[in-house]
Amino acid sequence: MTESNISFSHEDEDLSKGERTRLAIMQAAVELFTKQGYHGTSMRQIAEQAGIALGGIYNHFESKEDIFRQVSLAYHPIHVVIPALEADQGDTVEEFVHQAGDRMYTSLSAGEDFLNLMFIEMVEFKGRHLPMIFKEMFTRALDFSQRMQQKRGALRAEIPLQIMLVTFIGLMFTFFFFYRIFGSTADLGAPREVLHKVMDIYLHGILKNEPQE
Fold first, then answer.
1. Of 73, 100, 116, at which residue does a domain stop?
2. Is 143 inside any structural domain?
3. What's the rounded Cα separation, in Å, for the pair 90 and 151?
């Protein structure tokens, strides 16, 4: 794990003492989780990092897993992805998808430290909390595929909008993770160039269109 440089921006005057303490606990937890992993971090360490007594944590969270669950829900990368997908982009389906891919890649790159939480979720929790996160964000994200349907261009009617959405988001996350881990050794090329090839595959597949006999 790498050390996190995540910070949370909140106006102190708008928060109660309890809310500030809760945020301090979450900040401490994120920094320790991304540096040491979930199982390598103790509640005592979180309390010390947050500058509170150990017992004080339990006034805000039931357990260490409750802290991780709340941190994941509040600061998961999907929260930077959804605004990128909500922005209206392009007049045609192709323009819309390519620009959405660009915006999503930019958003993920800006919040890259948050992706450590996803690795922890997948490795240490086997994805146990992901259905909760997906349920929270799916309704908002579905608007992306509905707007794509309204752009110029013929979409395949037999593919449900939900499948278009899940495929797009899954492809983007897979590309982002793969490129970050293997891009420099796989000689794939500049990330933006590769990204748009990936978007072309999403739109058109890998089979060459040939006339039917």
1. 73
2. yes
3. 8
